[in-house]
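Lab notebook, bench 4. Continuing the backlog of folding jobs that were queued last week. Each job is logged with the same field layout so the records can be merged later without manual cleanup. Today's entry covers Ubiquitin-like protease family profile domain-containing protein, a 288-residue chain. Filled in by technician R.K.

JOB TYPE: sequence-to-structure
TARGET: Ubiquitin-like protease family profile domain-containing protein
LENGTH: 288
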Amino acid sequence: WCFLFKNWELWGLTLSLAAPRYPHSCGCHLSRGILEESLRQYGSLIPIHVDDVVEKLQDIFNENFSHPHRKAVVQHLIHSFHRSSGSVVAKTFRVNYKRHVLTMDDLGTLYGQNWLNDQVMNMYGELVMDSVPKKVHFFNSFFYDKLRTKGYEGVKRWTKNVDIFQKDLLLIPIHLEVHWSLVSVDIPRRAITYFDSQRTLNRRCPKHIYKYLQAEAIKKDQQDFLTGWTGFFKMNVGRQNNDSDCGAFVLQYCKCLALGQQFNFGQQDMPRLRRQMYKELCHCKLMV
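JOB STATUS: finished
OUTPUT FIELD FOLLOWS
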């Protein structure tokens, strides 16, 4: 706690130097409030960018904090504070939404170049569904592997309370070994589309989904959906340039498809989008 106190004092001192007409105690109080609010909302400073803090400081002091030197100081202090205080809150921080529970271990997969895990994938998919009620169905990330290994018999009960043919869009995340991709199904257009940020041509995956749709149509007595399906491979979408952002790309595909938005993002946007998804999960609501 002594170390934490010293960090608070360092923040207060820096802000006092940056805005000398304000007393030291005021600067310390305001900086402490900014960081404590972020920790309370997010459990860590992972989703906080230097521009977020600079914007708040400018609003408070009515001064320009975007000078490179000031931003560099703010960035350094964010890192220092994150290292010294993050673990205090992280031990107990939880995000609860419906049947989903995210811990800091889960949210931490959105940091840097970590691989996203199933918990993050599935809760974000729930948020996508809830952003367009009754129009989209997001399949659990374990669905495809069960379908691939057990066939229709292994997943036929997964939609016992859902008529997928009454939806506009189905979103099926695909997790094969260490890579995420996505299959979307446009029900009205009878279109099955495969999205892969590494542009891998996986022909088996859409075929599995096609056979699943046929079996589901028979079970649900939806004869109109037995035929007329077409398959597509979307190769001209945002492409990743590393081995770690495939999950982040998949979640952005899901969000854009559900909301009818263009894929106007690429590898350079992933750090910002990872921070945004972290915040969306903590607020249990998509930013649209």
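OBSERVATION: The chain is about 50% helix and 10% strand.
SIGNED: R.K.
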